[in-house]
Amino acid sequence: MRRTHILATVVATILVVAAVPVPADALTTAPGSNDAVAFDVDETQSVSSANQNALRSGDVAEHGSAGSETQSRNVADASGSFPGGNVTVTRGDRVTFTVSHSGPANVTIGGPDYGYHLRIHLGGSGTDEVSIDTYATTSADPDTYVTGGDATLVGPSGGLDEPLEPGDYLVRVDVAGVERDIATLTVEPRGGMSAQTFVAPGEFDPNSVNAGNDGNANVGPLTGVASARGTVAKGDYAVVKIEESGLETALNASDLSGGEAANGVKLTFTQTAPGPNRDPTTYLAHGTTDGAKEANVTVYPAFGSDHVYVVWDTSNVSLSRQSERNRYEARLTLTEGNSLVDEETVVAATPVRLVRQTVSLSPETDHVHLPWENDTYVVSGRTNRAPNTTLEVRIRSPDPNAFLQIRPMTVDGDGRFRASFDLGDVSRGANATMWVRDHYLETMQEVAIVAPDPSVTIDDQDPGDDPELTVARAEVPEGGFVRLVDEGGTAVGRSNYLEPGRHENVSASLSMPLYDSQTIRAELVADRTATRRTTPGTTLRTSETAPR
Question: Where is the composition biased (Low complexity) (predicted)?
């Protein structure tokens, strides 16, 4: 009897152990191994004790068979998976993945063999999106950096000393206590960072960029007008384009002062050649610590493309008379307050050279505009302002008939601009002033819109048997012809129609040969219709010759 009793006790004990489902998150499997390692001893023991109490009360003996069948069916119907499969993230960035589950589930990341063990409970059923900020894994409270589920940090209890290190971490999902799917979370090392200087027009409106709330600003309005150039005219925007790595959550767009709120991320513009016995002038984004002046900057993270854009308004930056002292370097620094580095480290830098604005303007023809010239008066200029800057070119005259013409022109990539004015309806005899708005002193030009006097000159000559005389010069303001008249006032010849302008050596055909020495008068006749008329037109000027 005693032996039989002992055997029954052993059998009962075995049944208790077999009836207890071991939670999947209580086991961890080392990479490349099929061996399960128990780590959550307290949780397993509490479950076993509960089942032993149930055996003592006789519940298992009475209902165990039906309960086991129901539990088996539930387990068989349960499912869980990672629809996206394996995931990869740069150290310091945020990783997001989805979990599908038919019922309450536990997602486990890492384990004792990984130096990091996180469990995330998902209630109900469906598909959940889980997000983990790898930079904030130094926190002892995982709910501060995990969204999408109820997180428990199994170890280390006080959080990591540094952000989650590069490596491959096993990710498991269990439903109804059974492992349903596994995946790999790969944390990659941070890559190298770099910076490049651009320039944007001073008229650019920073509010035109939709900053968004997800760290992915719509920077199209900025990149559409910014040009890669290290020289920035005061008043334009210096744009620093940073190629970042691992700063997705550490970078605070509203604070790059390097302090606690900035997570140790600091942006400065520091003078590179301050001169002897001088401390360099430094402009600090969002702060004035350590004697720095505050830089008026706007920051646009575009983490979707791993970029950060910093726009520096240079309007209030003091310029030195010595150009070398206007050279700065934009530096992105991680201070000791950032857990990605052990000591203050400059991770990206690019030069920025500030200069005074310069604009020049000149006509493409002459400062005198004649009536026979093209009605379009073209001027061109150069500037060191940012490409895509709009400059307003003006020409103005108060007398005799006042007029003002304004032409907004865009600076091209070479710093050139060009404007055209229509002077066709402008009264002749006026003096006009031409300039670029906001740059009057350096661009002001005087333009004479003249109405020249008509004139004609014919020299003594011997035509012989030639039925033509040559008119030496004719200045025709509005078009016409030269008429030849003898001493009696009879027309004896004429030239072809002459366009408005200055003409030399104009041939005038004779209606009859001239054999005797006589005086011939050349008359300049206005004829806007350009016809070969024989009736007298308006005689503008005359000149006489005596054929030899």
Answer: 532-548
CATH 2.40.50 fits 455-545, yes or no: no
Q: Is 432 exposed, middle or buried (0-12, 13-18, 19+ CB in 10 A)?
A: buried
> Residue 333: which residues within 8 A CB-CB, separation 6 or more?
258, 265, 266, 267, 268, 344, 345, 346, 347
Domain boundaries defined on the chain = 2-77, 80-188, 194-355, 359-449, 455-545
Can 194-355 and 359-449 be said to share one CATH topology?
Answer: yes
Average pLDDT value for the chain: 84
- Nearest 5°: the CA angle 107, 109, 112 is 125
Pick the CATH number of 194-355 from 2.60.40, 1.10.10, 2.40.10, 3.30.420: 2.60.40
Four-way CATH pick for 359-449: 3.40.50.2300, 6.10.250.3280, 3.40.630.10, 2.60.40.10: 2.60.40.10
SS3 labels along 228-272:
ECCEEEECEEEEEEEECCCCCCCCECCECECCCCCCCEEEEEEEC
- pLDDT of 163 reads 98
Residues of the chain with pLDDT under 70: 1-76, 371-372, 451-452, 528-548
Q: Model-level pTM?
A: 0.73
Query: Which of 372, 388, 350, 345 is CA-nearest to residue 479?
Result: 372
pLDDT score recorded for residue 488: 86
Task: List the one residue out of 485, 503, 486, 484 whose CA is nearest residue 494.
Answer: 484
Alpha-carbon gap, residue 517 to 461, rounded angstroms? 10
Structure tokens at 397: 């005259």
- pLDDT reported for residue 474: 86
Rounded to whole angstroms, how far apart are CA atoms 517 and 515?
A: 7
pLDDT digits over 160-178, tens only? 999 999 999 999 999 999 9
Tokens 């104009």, residue? 506
By the 8 A CB rule, do 416 and 388 touch? Answer: no
Domain at 80-188: CATH code: 2.60.40
Complete DSSP assignment for 1-59: -HHHHHHHHHHHHHHHHHHSPPPGGGEEE-TT---EEE--HHHHHHHHHHHHHHHHHTH
**pLDDT recorded at residue 473:** 87
